[in-house]
């Protein structure tokens, strides 16, 4: 019987993955009981619902810390000022959809355990993907990062969480224009590679996007020193690169073709629908044997994952046999 193409299953109206722990409203009573420091930020909003001010970076960071503690067992999480404070539900969704991709690839076995190895390109100061991925599935991670300050902060988070530190290795990328060279060691391979690329093509574009977020939150545009304030933090390489996400991912695709067996599924988030045609052309030129686009949604925000592989049928069958046996 011919293998059927992968089709992600539809999710409920919230848009989040069915296994996502954040599909319902935040339980602020439970969160503040577990993390009392959150209480100062919790109050009724304009609709009479108990919430926080999501335009307040300190409130968002404190909520993240509480969510990571309650749902994933992470303690002492923090990020330096002006670094990206990631929305936990959306980050968890990426990981759950990658688990689905591996489940499909094994023929129906949800992959768990430290044997599953994941490379996170651009792990950031927050180390959010390895933390959630290990807590949810027990996977092992290598996180690469070009920013030494961000990497030091991620290392401090791991130092406070020995259970995670044993499963997560951090590596400094000393060649900023490279993705895999200098990070993937000779003979090393991964089941998955993931990446949350800088979406914007310039700092001005990133600032304009942040101003739209302020407007959506019902707040006046915020500035500091005449420059737009980024309401969820982030700077430099976290937010923008020359050519934006399309150019970034196309370079990643080209480099992945140079080491096609180092990873089964290479993947990246793609924020803009308009980036897809160029990415598909890059995949065709690189000789990818297969690729999927997986749609995701969180409220009004829509994004997607592009996944590609260079494995042929024999290699895929061998991988599936090995992973199913374990």
Largest sheet: 7 strands, mixed
Mean of all residue-level pLDDT scores: 87
End-to-end Cα distance? 25 Å
Biggest sheet, strands in spatial order?
5-4-3-6-9-11-10
CATH architecture: 3-Layer(aba) Sandwich
Q: Indicate the percent of residues in helices.
A: 25-40%
Note the run of SSEs as H and E: HEEHHEHEHHEEHEEHEHEEH
Keywords: Cytoplasm, Methyltransferase, rRNA processing, S-adenosyl-L-methionine, Transferase
Subcellular location: Cytoplasm
InterPro entries: METTL16/RlmF, rRNA_lsu_MeTfrase_F, SAM-dependent_MTases_sf
GO cellular component, one term: cytoplasm
Short description:
This protein is 37% helix and 17% strand. It is α/β, with parallel strands linked by helices and 326 residues long. Strand 1 (43-44) and strand 2 form a beta hairpin.
């Amino acid at each position: 019987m011919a293998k059927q193409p992968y089709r992600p299953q539809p999710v409920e109206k919230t848009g989040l993955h069915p296994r996502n722990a954040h599909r319902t409203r935040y339980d602020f009573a439970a969160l503040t009981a577990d993390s009392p420091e959150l209480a100062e930020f919790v109050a009724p909003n304009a609709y009479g619902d108990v919430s926080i001010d999501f335009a307040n970076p300190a409130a968002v960071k404190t909520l993240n810390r509480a969510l990571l503690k309650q749902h994933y067992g992470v303690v002492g999480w923090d990020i330096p000022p002006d670094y990206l404070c990631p929305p936990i539900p959306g980050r968890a969704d990426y990981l759950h959809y990658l688990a689905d991709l591996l489940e499909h690839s094994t023929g129906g076995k949800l992959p768990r355990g430290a044997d599953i190895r994941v490379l996170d390109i651009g792990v950031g100061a927050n180390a959010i993907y390895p933390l959630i991925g290990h807590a949810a599935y027990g996977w092992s991670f290598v996180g690469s990062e070009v920013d030494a300050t961000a990497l030091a902060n991620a290392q401090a988070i791991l130092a406070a969480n020995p259970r995670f530190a044993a499963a997560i290795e951090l590596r400094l990328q000393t060649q900023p224009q490279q993705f895999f060279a200098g990070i993937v060691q000779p003979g090393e391979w991964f089941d998955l590679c993931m990446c949350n690329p800088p979406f914007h093509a310039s700092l001005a574009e990133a600032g304009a996007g942040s101003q739209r977020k302020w407007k959506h939150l019902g707040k006046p545009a915020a500035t500091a020193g005449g420059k737009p304030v980024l309401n969820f933090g982030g700077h430099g390489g976290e937010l923008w690169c020359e050519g934006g996400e399309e150019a970034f991912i196309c370079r990643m695709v080209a480099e992945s073709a140079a080491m096609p067996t180092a990873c089964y599924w290479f993947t990246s988030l793609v924020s803009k629908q308009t980036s897809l045609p160029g990415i598909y052309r890059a995949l065709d030129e690189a000789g990818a044997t297969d690729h999927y686009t997986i749609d995701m949604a969180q409220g009004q925000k829509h994004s997607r994952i592009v996944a590609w592989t260079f494995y042929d049928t024999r290699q895929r069958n061998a991988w599936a046999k090995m992973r199913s046996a374990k």
